[in-house]
Amino acid sequence: MIEVELRVNGTAHRVELDPRVSLLDALREQLGLTGTKKGCNQGACGACTVLVDGDRIAACLALAVQYGGREITTIEGVAHPLQRAFVRTDGLQCGYCTPGQICSALGMLAEADAGMPSAVTEHLAEPRVTLSSAEVRERMSGNLCRCGAYNGITDAIREVAGARPGVSS
Amino acid sequence: MRPFEYVSAPDVATAVRAISDAPGAKLLGGGTNLVDLMRQDVERPTTVVDISGVPLTGVDELPDGGLRIGALVRNSRLAAHPVVRARFPVLAQALLSGASGQLRNMATVGGNLLQRTRCLYFVDASAACNKREPGSGCDAVGGFHRGGAVLGASEHCIATHPSDMAVALAALDAVVEVESVRGTRRVPLVELHRLPGDTPHRETELEPDELITAVEVPASTAAATSRYRKVRDRASFAFALVSVAAAIDVQDGAVAAVRIALGGVAAKPWRAYEAERVLTGARATEAVFREAAEAELAGAVGLPGNEFKIELARRTIVATLRQLRVEGGAA
Protein backbone atom coordinates (compact mmCIF):
# COMPACT_ATOMS: atom_id res chain seq x y z
CA MET A 1 0.00 0.00 0.00
CA ILE A 2 1.13 3.53 -0.80
CA GLU A 3 0.10 6.68 1.01
CA VAL A 4 -1.00 9.47 -1.31
CA GLU A 5 -2.52 12.91 -0.80
CA LEU A 6 -5.42 13.34 -3.20
CA ARG A 7 -6.55 16.96 -3.50
CA VAL A 8 -10.13 16.89 -4.72
CA ASN A 9 -12.41 19.90 -5.12
CA GLY A 10 -10.18 21.94 -2.83
CA THR A 11 -9.97 19.36 -0.04
CA ALA A 12 -6.87 17.27 0.71
CA HIS A 13 -7.42 13.59 1.56
CA ARG A 14 -4.68 11.25 2.78
CA VAL A 15 -5.45 7.78 1.47
CA GLU A 16 -3.70 4.39 1.49
CA LEU A 17 -3.79 2.88 -1.97
CA ASP A 18 -2.90 -0.34 -3.72
CA PRO A 19 -0.97 1.01 -6.76
CA ARG A 20 -3.41 -0.84 -9.05
CA VAL A 21 -6.32 1.40 -8.02
CA SER A 22 -7.44 3.81 -10.73
CA LEU A 23 -8.15 7.44 -9.94
CA LEU A 24 -11.75 6.69 -10.86
CA ASP A 25 -12.06 3.88 -8.29
CA ALA A 26 -10.25 5.92 -5.62
CA LEU A 27 -12.69 8.81 -6.10
CA ARG A 28 -15.77 6.60 -6.05
CA GLU A 29 -14.88 3.86 -3.59
CA GLN A 30 -12.48 5.53 -1.17
CA LEU A 31 -13.66 9.14 -1.17
CA GLY A 32 -17.35 8.39 -1.82
CA LEU A 33 -17.47 10.84 -4.73
CA THR A 34 -19.77 8.81 -6.98
CA GLY A 35 -20.63 11.65 -9.35
CA THR A 36 -17.78 10.52 -11.61
CA LYS A 37 -19.12 7.50 -13.48
CA LYS A 38 -17.60 4.23 -14.61
CA GLY A 39 -18.71 3.40 -18.15
CA CYS A 40 -16.37 1.37 -20.35
CA ASN A 41 -13.40 1.45 -17.92
CA GLN A 42 -11.07 1.53 -20.93
CA GLY A 43 -10.88 5.18 -21.92
CA ALA A 44 -13.39 5.05 -24.75
CA CYS A 45 -16.61 6.53 -23.34
CA GLY A 46 -15.62 9.60 -21.31
CA ALA A 47 -18.05 8.99 -18.43
CA CYS A 48 -15.12 9.14 -15.98
CA THR A 49 -13.77 12.50 -17.18
CA VAL A 50 -12.36 14.71 -14.42
CA LEU A 51 -10.15 17.80 -14.47
CA VAL A 52 -6.57 17.65 -13.21
CA ASP A 53 -4.92 21.06 -12.86
CA GLY A 54 -7.60 22.19 -15.31
CA ASP A 55 -6.91 19.51 -17.94
CA ARG A 56 -9.58 16.94 -18.74
CA ILE A 57 -8.46 13.32 -18.43
CA ALA A 58 -10.00 9.84 -18.34
CA ALA A 59 -9.84 8.84 -14.66
CA CYS A 60 -10.28 5.13 -15.49
CA LEU A 61 -6.86 4.97 -17.21
CA ALA A 62 -5.12 7.00 -14.49
CA LEU A 63 -3.48 5.17 -11.61
CA ALA A 64 -4.40 7.15 -8.50
CA VAL A 65 -0.82 6.99 -7.15
CA GLN A 66 0.28 9.12 -10.12
CA TYR A 67 -1.97 12.01 -9.13
CA GLY A 68 -0.84 12.84 -5.60
CA GLY A 69 -0.69 16.57 -4.94
CA ARG A 70 -2.49 17.51 -8.17
CA GLU A 71 -5.66 19.64 -8.11
CA ILE A 72 -8.48 17.29 -9.09
CA THR A 73 -11.96 18.60 -9.90
CA THR A 74 -14.93 16.26 -10.12
CA ILE A 75 -18.55 17.07 -10.93
CA GLU A 76 -19.17 17.55 -7.19
CA GLY A 77 -16.82 20.54 -7.34
CA VAL A 78 -18.46 22.18 -10.36
CA ALA A 79 -21.04 25.00 -10.22
CA HIS A 80 -21.14 26.51 -13.71
CA PRO A 81 -23.72 28.02 -16.09
CA LEU A 82 -23.03 25.07 -18.41
CA GLN A 83 -25.05 22.83 -16.08
CA ARG A 84 -28.18 24.98 -16.45
CA ALA A 85 -27.56 25.13 -20.20
CA PHE A 86 -27.58 21.30 -20.37
CA VAL A 87 -30.98 21.28 -18.63
CA ARG A 88 -32.34 24.01 -20.89
CA THR A 89 -31.26 22.30 -24.13
CA ASP A 90 -32.20 18.73 -23.08
CA GLY A 91 -28.52 17.79 -23.24
CA LEU A 92 -29.27 14.54 -21.43
CA GLN A 93 -31.82 11.80 -21.06
CA CYS A 94 -30.68 9.15 -18.56
CA GLY A 95 -27.91 11.44 -17.29
CA TYR A 96 -25.24 8.78 -16.77
CA CYS A 97 -22.76 10.43 -19.15
CA THR A 98 -23.56 13.97 -17.99
CA PRO A 99 -20.91 14.46 -15.25
CA GLY A 100 -18.25 13.41 -17.75
CA GLN A 101 -19.77 15.58 -20.48
CA ILE A 102 -19.75 18.62 -18.18
CA CYS A 103 -16.19 18.13 -16.95
CA SER A 104 -14.99 17.41 -20.49
CA ALA A 105 -16.75 20.48 -21.86
CA LEU A 106 -15.18 22.70 -19.19
CA GLY A 107 -11.74 21.36 -20.05
CA MET A 108 -12.49 21.79 -23.74
CA LEU A 109 -13.61 25.41 -23.29
CA ALA A 110 -10.34 26.16 -21.49
CA GLU A 111 -8.43 24.54 -24.39
CA ALA A 112 -10.36 26.72 -26.85
CA ASP A 113 -9.65 29.82 -24.72
CA ALA A 114 -5.96 28.95 -24.96
CA GLY A 115 -6.26 28.76 -28.76
CA MET A 116 -5.73 25.00 -29.07
CA PRO A 117 -6.69 23.80 -32.57
CA SER A 118 -8.60 20.58 -33.34
CA ALA A 119 -8.56 18.04 -36.15
CA VAL A 120 -11.23 20.05 -38.00
CA THR A 121 -9.60 23.45 -37.56
CA GLU A 122 -8.94 24.76 -41.06
CA HIS A 123 -6.18 27.27 -40.29
CA LEU A 124 -3.89 25.65 -37.75
CA ALA A 125 -1.81 28.73 -37.04
CA GLU A 126 -4.89 30.87 -36.29
CA PRO A 127 -4.68 31.70 -32.57
CA ARG A 128 -8.41 32.32 -32.10
CA VAL A 129 -10.83 29.41 -32.00
CA THR A 130 -14.37 29.61 -33.35
CA LEU A 131 -16.46 26.89 -31.72
CA SER A 132 -18.71 25.90 -34.61
CA SER A 133 -20.94 22.87 -34.24
CA ALA A 134 -18.34 20.80 -36.12
CA GLU A 135 -15.59 22.01 -33.76
CA VAL A 136 -17.62 21.14 -30.65
CA ARG A 137 -18.46 17.68 -31.98
CA GLU A 138 -14.84 16.93 -32.84
CA ARG A 139 -13.52 18.24 -29.54
CA MET A 140 -16.15 16.31 -27.56
CA SER A 141 -15.69 13.00 -29.44
CA GLY A 142 -14.22 11.42 -26.31
CA ASN A 143 -17.63 11.58 -24.60
CA LEU A 144 -20.30 9.14 -25.73
CA CYS A 145 -24.01 9.56 -24.98
CA ARG A 146 -25.95 6.38 -25.66
CA CYS A 147 -29.27 8.24 -25.30
CA GLY A 148 -28.07 10.29 -28.28
CA ALA A 149 -28.54 13.73 -26.74
CA TYR A 150 -25.73 15.12 -28.87
CA ASN A 151 -27.71 17.98 -30.40
CA GLY A 152 -28.65 19.31 -26.96
CA ILE A 153 -25.11 18.80 -25.65
CA THR A 154 -23.64 20.69 -28.61
CA ASP A 155 -26.18 23.50 -28.24
CA ALA A 156 -25.52 23.84 -24.49
CA ILE A 157 -21.77 24.07 -24.99
CA ARG A 158 -22.05 26.57 -27.85
CA GLU A 159 -24.48 28.67 -25.84
CA VAL A 160 -22.02 28.94 -22.96
CA ALA A 161 -19.02 29.38 -25.28
CA GLY A 162 -20.74 32.24 -27.08
CA ALA A 163 -21.24 34.08 -23.79
CA ARG A 164 -17.52 34.05 -23.07
CA PRO A 165 -14.94 36.59 -24.19
CA GLY A 166 -12.26 35.28 -26.53
CA VAL A 167 -14.27 32.38 -27.90
CA SER A 168 -16.96 32.80 -30.50
CA SER A 169 -19.61 30.31 -31.52
CA MET B 1 -4.81 -6.58 -12.73
CA ARG B 2 -1.83 -8.47 -11.32
CA PRO B 3 0.12 -6.97 -8.42
CA PHE B 4 3.29 -5.04 -9.21
CA GLU B 5 5.89 -3.03 -7.41
CA TYR B 6 5.40 0.70 -7.98
CA VAL B 7 8.48 2.90 -8.31
CA SER B 8 8.21 6.64 -8.87
CA ALA B 9 11.28 7.98 -10.68
CA PRO B 10 12.02 11.70 -10.28
CA ASP B 11 14.69 11.84 -12.98
CA VAL B 12 16.15 9.97 -15.99
CA ALA B 13 19.04 8.44 -14.03
CA THR B 14 16.69 6.88 -11.46
CA ALA B 15 14.34 5.65 -14.18
CA VAL B 16 16.98 3.89 -16.29
CA ARG B 17 18.54 2.33 -13.18
CA ALA B 18 15.12 1.07 -12.05
CA ILE B 19 14.31 -0.61 -15.40
CA SER B 20 17.83 -2.00 -15.58
CA ASP B 21 17.59 -3.48 -12.07
CA ALA B 22 14.16 -5.06 -12.56
CA PRO B 23 13.74 -7.32 -15.61
CA GLY B 24 10.03 -7.36 -16.33
CA ALA B 25 9.66 -3.68 -15.46
CA LYS B 26 7.52 -1.36 -17.58
CA LEU B 27 7.72 2.41 -17.85
CA LEU B 28 4.50 4.29 -17.07
CA GLY B 29 3.91 7.67 -18.71
CA GLY B 30 0.33 8.75 -19.35
CA GLY B 31 -0.97 5.21 -18.84
CA THR B 32 -3.56 5.37 -21.62
CA ASN B 33 -2.34 2.15 -23.22
CA LEU B 34 -0.37 0.38 -20.47
CA VAL B 35 -3.04 0.62 -17.74
CA ASP B 36 -5.68 -0.70 -20.13
CA LEU B 37 -3.49 -3.63 -21.23
CA MET B 38 -2.57 -4.48 -17.63
CA ARG B 39 -6.28 -4.62 -16.82
CA GLN B 40 -6.79 -6.98 -19.81
CA ASP B 41 -3.93 -9.17 -18.52
CA VAL B 42 -2.01 -8.55 -21.75
CA GLU B 43 0.76 -6.59 -20.03
CA ARG B 44 2.04 -8.23 -16.84
CA PRO B 45 4.85 -6.06 -15.46
CA THR B 46 6.37 -7.09 -12.14
CA THR B 47 7.55 -3.51 -11.59
CA VAL B 48 6.00 -0.30 -12.90
CA VAL B 49 8.40 2.63 -13.09
CA ASP B 50 6.37 5.82 -13.10
CA ILE B 51 8.21 8.44 -15.15
CA SER B 52 5.35 10.94 -15.35
CA GLY B 53 7.25 13.29 -13.00
CA VAL B 54 10.53 13.18 -14.94
CA PRO B 55 11.23 16.66 -16.36
CA LEU B 56 11.36 15.75 -20.07
CA THR B 57 8.61 18.20 -20.96
CA GLY B 58 10.35 20.82 -23.10
CA VAL B 59 9.72 21.67 -26.75
CA ASP B 60 12.83 23.56 -27.85
CA GLU B 61 13.83 25.08 -31.17
CA LEU B 62 17.20 23.90 -32.47
CA PRO B 63 19.70 26.33 -34.06
CA ASP B 64 19.06 24.87 -37.52
CA GLY B 65 15.29 25.45 -37.28
CA GLY B 66 14.45 21.94 -36.12
CA LEU B 67 12.70 20.93 -32.91
CA ARG B 68 13.71 18.92 -29.87
CA ILE B 69 10.69 17.41 -28.16
CA GLY B 70 10.90 15.95 -24.65
CA ALA B 71 9.59 12.39 -24.39
CA LEU B 72 7.07 13.34 -21.71
CA VAL B 73 5.46 16.23 -23.55
CA ARG B 74 1.73 15.53 -23.62
CA ASN B 75 0.27 14.97 -27.09
CA SER B 76 -2.14 17.90 -26.68
CA ARG B 77 0.64 20.31 -25.67
CA LEU B 78 2.78 19.34 -28.64
CA ALA B 79 -0.12 19.75 -31.07
CA ALA B 80 -0.85 23.22 -29.69
CA HIS B 81 2.78 24.41 -29.82
CA PRO B 82 3.00 27.50 -32.07
CA VAL B 83 6.14 26.30 -33.89
CA VAL B 84 4.62 22.88 -34.60
CA ARG B 85 1.46 24.49 -35.96
CA ALA B 86 3.33 26.98 -38.13
CA ARG B 87 6.28 24.95 -39.42
CA PHE B 88 5.31 21.28 -39.04
CA PRO B 89 1.54 21.24 -39.67
CA VAL B 90 1.61 17.52 -40.53
CA LEU B 91 2.70 16.77 -36.97
CA ALA B 92 0.02 18.94 -35.35
CA GLN B 93 -2.66 17.40 -37.57
CA ALA B 94 -1.52 13.85 -36.87
CA LEU B 95 -1.56 14.44 -33.12
CA LEU B 96 -4.99 16.09 -33.22
CA SER B 97 -6.45 13.23 -35.26
CA GLY B 98 -5.41 10.67 -32.64
CA ALA B 99 -7.55 9.49 -29.72
CA SER B 100 -9.72 12.02 -27.85
CA GLY B 101 -9.22 15.29 -25.99
CA GLN B 102 -8.94 13.46 -22.66
CA LEU B 103 -6.41 10.91 -23.90
CA ARG B 104 -4.28 13.50 -25.72
CA ASN B 105 -3.95 15.34 -22.39
CA MET B 106 -2.57 12.17 -20.78
CA ALA B 107 -0.56 10.50 -23.54
CA THR B 108 3.14 11.29 -23.85
CA VAL B 109 5.34 11.45 -26.95
CA GLY B 110 7.47 8.48 -25.86
CA GLY B 111 4.44 6.43 -24.89
CA ASN B 112 2.73 7.23 -28.16
CA LEU B 113 5.72 5.76 -30.06
CA LEU B 114 5.79 2.62 -27.94
CA GLN B 115 2.04 1.98 -27.74
CA ARG B 116 0.95 -1.53 -28.70
CA THR B 117 -1.19 -2.63 -31.63
CA ARG B 118 -4.97 -2.57 -31.25
CA CYS B 119 -5.31 -5.89 -33.16
CA LEU B 120 -8.38 -7.52 -31.59
CA TYR B 121 -6.54 -10.78 -31.00
CA PHE B 122 -3.55 -9.12 -29.35
CA VAL B 123 -5.72 -7.34 -26.78
CA ASP B 124 -7.78 -10.50 -26.11
CA ALA B 125 -5.69 -12.60 -23.73
CA SER B 126 -7.70 -15.73 -24.66
CA ALA B 127 -6.91 -15.56 -28.41
CA ALA B 128 -3.91 -16.99 -30.27
CA CYS B 129 -1.35 -14.26 -30.91
CA ASN B 130 2.30 -14.68 -31.82
CA LYS B 131 3.05 -11.15 -30.67
CA ARG B 132 1.63 -11.67 -27.18
CA GLU B 133 2.54 -15.35 -26.84
CA PRO B 134 5.29 -16.37 -29.31
CA GLY B 135 4.44 -19.61 -31.12
CA SER B 136 0.75 -19.60 -30.21
CA GLY B 137 -0.42 -18.76 -33.75
CA CYS B 138 -2.35 -15.85 -35.24
CA ASP B 139 -6.14 -15.71 -34.98
CA ALA B 140 -6.20 -12.49 -37.02
CA VAL B 141 -5.18 -14.09 -40.34
CA GLY B 142 -8.36 -16.18 -40.50
CA GLY B 143 -10.42 -13.82 -38.35
CA PHE B 144 -11.60 -10.21 -38.33
CA HIS B 145 -8.63 -8.34 -39.75
CA ARG B 146 -10.12 -5.16 -41.21
CA GLY B 147 -7.40 -3.22 -39.39
CA GLY B 148 -4.61 -5.56 -40.49
CA ALA B 149 -1.41 -4.79 -42.37
CA VAL B 150 -0.99 -4.96 -46.17
CA LEU B 151 2.69 -4.00 -46.29
CA GLY B 152 5.55 -5.85 -44.60
CA ALA B 153 3.30 -8.36 -42.82
CA SER B 154 4.07 -12.05 -42.37
CA GLU B 155 2.14 -15.27 -41.92
CA HIS B 156 2.95 -14.92 -38.21
CA CYS B 157 1.50 -11.45 -37.65
CA ILE B 158 -0.54 -8.85 -39.53
CA ALA B 159 -0.79 -6.29 -36.71
CA THR B 160 -0.55 -2.59 -37.53
CA HIS B 161 1.09 0.14 -35.50
CA PRO B 162 -1.70 2.43 -34.30
CA SER B 163 0.09 5.77 -33.88
CA ASP B 164 -0.77 8.79 -36.00
CA MET B 165 2.02 10.93 -34.54
CA ALA B 166 4.68 8.38 -35.51
CA VAL B 167 3.57 8.51 -39.15
CA ALA B 168 4.12 12.27 -39.27
CA LEU B 169 7.47 11.90 -37.49
CA ALA B 170 8.55 9.23 -40.00
CA ALA B 171 7.81 11.63 -42.86
CA LEU B 172 9.73 14.39 -41.06
CA ASP B 173 12.95 12.32 -40.69
CA ALA B 174 12.70 12.43 -36.89
CA VAL B 175 15.40 10.90 -34.70
CA VAL B 176 14.69 9.28 -31.33
CA GLU B 177 17.10 9.77 -28.44
CA VAL B 178 17.39 6.83 -26.09
CA GLU B 179 18.99 6.50 -22.65
CA SER B 180 20.07 3.49 -20.62
CA VAL B 181 22.67 2.71 -17.96
CA ARG B 182 25.07 2.20 -20.90
CA GLY B 183 24.64 5.76 -22.11
CA THR B 184 22.80 7.68 -24.83
CA ARG B 185 22.18 6.67 -28.42
CA ARG B 186 20.13 7.97 -31.34
CA VAL B 187 17.82 5.91 -33.53
CA PRO B 188 16.16 7.22 -36.72
CA LEU B 189 12.41 6.98 -36.21
CA VAL B 190 11.97 4.92 -39.39
CA GLU B 191 14.27 2.29 -37.84
CA LEU B 192 12.68 2.28 -34.39
CA HIS B 193 9.89 -0.20 -35.15
CA ARG B 194 10.48 -3.65 -36.66
CA LEU B 195 8.50 -5.62 -39.20
CA PRO B 196 7.12 -8.87 -37.75
CA GLY B 197 8.91 -11.61 -39.71
CA ASP B 198 8.87 -14.65 -37.45
CA THR B 199 9.49 -12.60 -34.29
CA PRO B 200 6.44 -10.31 -34.02
CA HIS B 201 6.93 -10.09 -30.24
CA ARG B 202 10.04 -7.99 -30.93
CA GLU B 203 8.42 -4.72 -31.92
CA THR B 204 11.21 -2.17 -31.71
CA GLU B 205 14.97 -1.89 -31.88
CA LEU B 206 15.05 -0.79 -28.25
CA GLU B 207 16.39 -2.98 -25.46
CA PRO B 208 14.00 -3.60 -22.56
CA ASP B 209 16.05 -1.30 -20.30
CA GLU B 210 16.10 1.70 -22.63
CA LEU B 211 14.12 4.90 -22.11
CA ILE B 212 13.17 7.31 -24.89
CA THR B 213 14.16 10.77 -23.67
CA ALA B 214 13.53 12.98 -26.70
CA VAL B 215 12.54 13.15 -30.35
CA GLU B 216 14.34 15.53 -32.69
CA VAL B 217 12.75 16.80 -35.87
CA PRO B 218 15.18 18.41 -38.33
CA ALA B 219 14.32 21.54 -40.27
CA SER B 220 13.06 20.89 -43.78
CA THR B 221 11.89 23.03 -46.67
CA ALA B 222 9.04 20.65 -47.44
CA ALA B 223 7.58 20.56 -43.91
CA ALA B 224 5.89 23.96 -44.21
CA THR B 225 3.63 22.51 -46.91
CA SER B 226 2.65 19.31 -45.20
CA ARG B 227 -0.53 17.53 -44.25
CA TYR B 228 -1.88 14.45 -42.47
CA ARG B 229 -4.88 12.79 -44.04
CA LYS B 230 -6.58 10.02 -42.05
CA VAL B 231 -9.26 7.64 -43.35
CA ARG B 232 -11.22 5.78 -40.69
CA ASP B 233 -14.57 4.15 -39.93
CA ARG B 234 -15.78 7.16 -37.86
CA ALA B 235 -15.12 10.86 -38.31
CA SER B 236 -13.38 11.11 -34.94
CA PHE B 237 -11.83 9.00 -32.15
CA ALA B 238 -11.00 5.97 -34.30
CA PHE B 239 -7.78 4.40 -35.51
CA ALA B 240 -6.71 4.84 -39.11
CA LEU B 241 -7.63 2.34 -41.79
CA VAL B 242 -5.13 4.22 -43.91
CA SER B 243 -3.38 7.49 -43.25
CA VAL B 244 -0.90 9.57 -45.20
CA ALA B 245 1.61 12.07 -43.86
CA ALA B 246 3.11 14.07 -46.69
CA ALA B 247 5.32 17.08 -47.13
CA ILE B 248 6.18 18.50 -50.53
CA ASP B 249 8.19 21.35 -51.98
CA VAL B 250 7.16 22.16 -55.56
CA GLN B 251 9.34 24.59 -57.54
CA ASP B 252 8.23 25.72 -61.02
CA GLY B 253 5.81 22.82 -61.28
CA ALA B 254 8.41 20.18 -60.41
CA VAL B 255 8.87 18.28 -57.15
CA ALA B 256 12.02 19.61 -55.48
CA ALA B 257 11.57 17.62 -52.27
CA VAL B 258 8.94 15.21 -50.98
CA ARG B 259 8.45 13.05 -47.87
CA ILE B 260 5.61 10.56 -47.52
CA ALA B 261 4.76 8.04 -44.80
CA LEU B 262 1.75 5.75 -44.47
CA GLY B 263 -0.15 4.70 -41.36
CA GLY B 264 -2.59 1.85 -40.72
CA VAL B 265 -0.94 -0.41 -43.30
CA ALA B 266 2.06 -1.94 -41.53
CA ALA B 267 3.62 -2.86 -38.19
CA LYS B 268 5.57 0.39 -38.38
CA PRO B 269 5.07 3.88 -39.77
CA TRP B 270 5.70 3.08 -43.43
CA ARG B 271 8.03 5.51 -45.12
CA ALA B 272 7.05 5.58 -48.80
CA TYR B 273 10.53 5.65 -50.35
CA GLU B 274 9.33 4.19 -53.66
CA ALA B 275 6.72 6.91 -54.09
CA GLU B 276 9.28 9.56 -53.18
CA ARG B 277 11.68 8.17 -55.78
CA VAL B 278 9.06 8.46 -58.54
CA LEU B 279 8.06 11.96 -57.48
CA THR B 280 11.42 13.59 -56.89
CA GLY B 281 12.32 15.80 -59.86
CA ALA B 282 9.11 14.88 -61.72
CA ARG B 283 6.25 17.19 -62.66
CA ALA B 284 3.69 17.60 -59.87
CA THR B 285 0.79 16.21 -61.87
CA GLU B 286 -2.08 13.91 -61.04
CA ALA B 287 -0.63 11.23 -63.35
CA VAL B 288 2.73 11.30 -61.58
CA PHE B 289 1.02 11.19 -58.16
CA ARG B 290 -0.84 8.06 -59.25
CA GLU B 291 2.32 6.49 -60.65
CA ALA B 292 4.07 7.13 -57.34
CA ALA B 293 1.21 5.59 -55.37
CA GLU B 294 1.19 2.53 -57.65
CA ALA B 295 4.94 2.09 -57.15
CA GLU B 296 4.65 2.23 -53.37
CA LEU B 297 1.82 -0.30 -53.15
CA ALA B 298 3.26 -2.67 -55.77
CA GLY B 299 4.31 -5.15 -53.10
CA ALA B 300 1.16 -4.90 -50.99
CA VAL B 301 -0.61 -8.13 -50.03
CA GLY B 302 -4.16 -8.14 -48.70
CA LEU B 303 -6.42 -10.65 -47.01
CA PRO B 304 -10.18 -10.85 -47.72
CA GLY B 305 -11.01 -8.43 -44.91
CA ASN B 306 -8.37 -5.80 -45.55
CA GLU B 307 -7.42 -5.90 -49.25
CA PHE B 308 -9.52 -2.75 -49.76
CA LYS B 309 -6.72 -0.89 -47.99
CA ILE B 310 -4.38 -1.27 -50.97
CA GLU B 311 -6.47 0.85 -53.35
CA LEU B 312 -7.52 3.08 -50.44
CA ALA B 313 -3.85 3.77 -49.71
CA ARG B 314 -3.15 4.62 -53.38
CA ARG B 315 -6.07 7.01 -53.55
CA THR B 316 -5.25 8.63 -50.21
CA ILE B 317 -1.67 9.28 -51.34
CA VAL B 318 -2.94 10.93 -54.54
CA ALA B 319 -5.59 12.96 -52.70
CA THR B 320 -3.10 14.22 -50.12
CA LEU B 321 -0.55 15.26 -52.75
CA ARG B 322 -3.26 16.95 -54.81
CA GLN B 323 -4.37 18.94 -51.76
CA LEU B 324 -0.80 19.94 -50.92
CA ARG B 325 -0.17 21.06 -54.52
CA VAL B 326 -3.12 23.44 -54.18
CA GLU B 327 -2.05 24.66 -50.73
CA GLY B 328 1.53 25.15 -51.90
CA GLY B 329 0.23 27.48 -54.61
CA ALA B 330 1.45 25.24 -57.43
CA ALA B 331 -1.97 24.24 -58.79
From TrEMBL, chain A:
Keywords: Iron, Metal-binding, Oxidoreductase
Gene3D superfamilies named in the record: 3.10.20.30, [2Fe-2S]-binding domain
Superkingdom of this protein's organism: Bacteria
Residues in 2Fe-2S ferredoxin-type domain copies: 2-78
SUPFAM superfamilies (UniProt xref): 2Fe-2S ferredoxin-like, CO dehydrogenase ISP C-domain like
Pfam families assigned: Fer2, Fer2_2
Record-linked InterPro entries: 2Fe-2S-bd, 2Fe-2S-bd_dom_sf, 2Fe-2S_ferredoxin-like_sf, 2Fe-2S_ferredoxin-type, 2Fe2S_fd_BS, Aldehyde_Oxdr_Iron-Sulfur, Beta-grasp_dom_sf
UniProt protein name: 2Fe-2S iron-sulfur cluster binding domain-containing protein
Record organism: Pseudonocardia humida
Taxonomic path: Bacteria, Bacillati, Actinomycetota, Actinomycetes, Pseudonocardiales
From TrEMBL, chain B:
Highest rank taxon of the organism: Bacteria
UniProt xrefs under SUPFAM superfamilies: CO dehydrogenase flavoprotein C-terminal domain-like, FAD-binding/transporter-associated domain-like
Keyword Oxidoreductase in annotation: yes
PROSITE patterns according to UniProt: FAD_PCMH
Domain FAD-binding PCMH-type: 1-222
Annotated keywords: Oxidoreductase
Keyword tRNA processing: no
Residues passing through the membrane, by range: none
InterPro entries xref list: CO_DH_flav_C, CO_DH_flav_C_dom_sf, Diverse_Substr_Oxidored, FAD-bd_PCMH, FAD-bd_PCMH-like_sf, FAD-bd_PCMH_sub1, FAD-bd_PCMH_sub2, Mopterin_DH_FAD-bd
Matching PANTHER family: OXIDOREDUCTASE (PTHR42659:SF1), XANTHINE DEHYDROGENASE SUBUNIT C-RELATED (PTHR42659)
Official protein name in the record: Xanthine dehydrogenase family protein subunit M
